[in-house]
Design goal:
The protein is mainly α. The chain is built from 23 helices and 6 strands.
């Protein structure tokens, strides 16, 4: 269908472009940029003004009732999404460009970071449950396969033949032993589960309506266009209104805070030092640029750091920028070649659900691991962690009822619809609710620096060796070249200062 083809293709293309920007010029961490769930409530409110459909009926000049595939109402709603997202993304650019992100680190300690990262995984549990519950057998099989390959067989070498040629040594061939199960555990597990679903579908074991079935893709592939290139203004001139802007602004700010937690989690799993202030500022600045590009060309949904990618790093033990850049290229191919995108979209939901069960669990555990810096025998710290975590789980559950029940939605009525929408959007993100409570309590309840973990938890390098490692990981070549020619650029908060060398 035209709606799904254009919106999905545009989303994949924008994710590929913004991922390249972030990996090459942003934090330089191996983290994918993708659409976030936090933008969905705002988008749903705009798109639900009138029913959205792939086809609609019109009367042609001869008086005949004909069906067309282009819906002008759909395009106008997309233009509204785009305009509000573009304007709201400017706030994120200012947040990173003026160094306000770095200032947050003065009040954000290991307790807040732990709560923030843990709630990223916990709040995504509803996504994993929805996908996995469609066929628990296939989902649990996926969990079992990933566990066996990534943990039990991770040190088992596999023989692989190779052929090489060089001028000095000529043609060489032989067998090399590689630990494939450690680096390819997810791909191998996915391939096995996907093939099994195909076999069960062909033999009729999976009945009609079972979400683990692999349906006939011939019609979808035939309907999909070969090539589709998103371009600025493809849905018309962007439109801005107060309600949509306020909603997207709240989502943008929540996404920025979530990304900070993602940066620390990604750095830890990839074996990199914690990101310094200039890397955080640069990352948030370019995430704002990515959201703006998504508004100019794209589906009207902002892009943020992809939390699921962090779980994949923990499973595969692969934290390479080259791998993420290859993934970005793959997303560009999937976005611009519609028929390939349809093929990848045929992966059954229960397989994805099983993968999510493991990945989101790893993200949660990474957050908890930050508590090793904190004195957990302190009743102060136990209180802060417990209350903030519980609020971060309960408030989104309540917010979900509000979004689905018009009567329950009346519980948030201040007389200002824009403010009501702002509150609803914030409440949908358990991460921002929990992190805000943890940050407030951690900075207001009396406690020593050692008790809070501030003396052990280092956000910046302390030794010359650490600074060299920071330079290797986080310094961006283009910015370094320009700053070398124009030293005044080092005054900018997203450029390393002389003290960082």
């Amino acid at each position: 269908a035209v709606v799904s083809t254009q919106s999905t293709g545009t989303m994949f293309t924008m994710c590929g472009i913004t991922t390249m920007i972030q990996v090459l010029f942003g934090t330089r961490l191996p983290i994918i940029q993708s659409g976030s769930w936090i933008f969905f409530p705002v988008a749903a409110g705009i798109l639900s003004k009138t029913p959205c459909k792939d086809e609609y009926h019109v009367i042609d000049e001869n008086g005949n009732n004909v069906t067309q595939t282009w819906d002008p109402n759909w395009h106008s709603r997309m233009a509204e999404l785009q305009g509000n997202l573009m304007l709201a993304s400017l706030a994120q650019m200012l947040l990173g460009g003026f160094g306000l992100v770095g200032l947050l680190l003065k009040i954000v300690g290991p307790i807040t970071i732990a709560v923030m990262i843990s709630l990223i995984g916990l709040n995504l549990a509803i996504v994993a449950e929805y996908q996995a519950s469609q066929n628990w057998g296939i989902s649990l099989l996926m969990v079992l396969l990933v566990t066996v390959f990534s943990e039990y067989l991770k040190n088992v070498p596999v023989p692989l033949p190779y052929v090489s040629y060089s001028r000095d040594e000529g043609l060489k061939y032989g067998v090399t032993w590689l630990r494939l199960f450690s680096t390819l555990s997810v791909i191998i597990s996915l391939a096995i589960a996907w093939i099994l679903c195909g076999i069960l579908t062909a033999t009729g074991t999976l009945g009609e309506g079972d979400k683990a079935r692999i349906g006939d893709m011939s019609k979808s592939i035939n309907d999909a266009t070969w090539f589709y290139f998103p371009y600025p203004g493809q849905f018309g001139r962007p439109v801005v209104n107060v309600g949509g802007f306020v909603g997207f602004l709240a989502a943008i700010l929540a996404g920025a805070i979530e990304s900070i937690g993602d940066y620390f989690a990604c750095a830890k799993l990839a074996g990199a030092p914690p990101p310094p202030k200039y890397a955080l500022n640069r990352g948030i600045l370019l995430e704002g640029v990515g959201c703006f590009l998504a508004g100019v060309c794209g589906p009207g949904l902002g892009v943020t750091s992809y939390s699921e990618n962090i779980g994949a790093i923990g499973l595969t033990k692969v934290g390479s920028r080259r791998v993420i850049l290859c993934s970005a290229i793959l997303m560009l191919v999937m976005g611009m070649i519609g028929k390939i995108g349809v093929l990848f979209a045929s992966i059954p939901s229960p397989i994805i659900g099983g993968m999510y069960m493991v990945m989101f669990g790893i993200v949660t555990a990474v957050g908890i691991s930050n508590l090793r810096f904190v004195d957990l025998t302190s009743s102060r710290n136990v209180f802060i962690i417990g209350v903030s975590m519980y609020f971060g789980v309960v408030v989104p559950m309540w917010s979900g009822k509000i979004m689905s029940d018009p009567e329950a939605a009346k519980s948030i009525q201040t007389g200002n619809e824009e403010f009501d929408q702002l509150v609803r959007v914030i409440c949908t993100s358990g991460m921002i609710v929990g992190a805000a409570i943890a940050c407030f309590l951690d900075n207001t309840i009396p406690g020593t620096s050692k008790e809070r973990g501030l003396t052990s938890y280092k956000f910046t390098a302390q030794s010359c060796a650490d600074k060299e490692l920071l330079k290797k990981v986080y310094h961006e070549p283009v910015i370094e070249f320009l700053a070398g020619r124009l030293p005044i650029l080092r005054k900018l908060p997203f450029v390393p200062s002389k003290a960082d060398f």
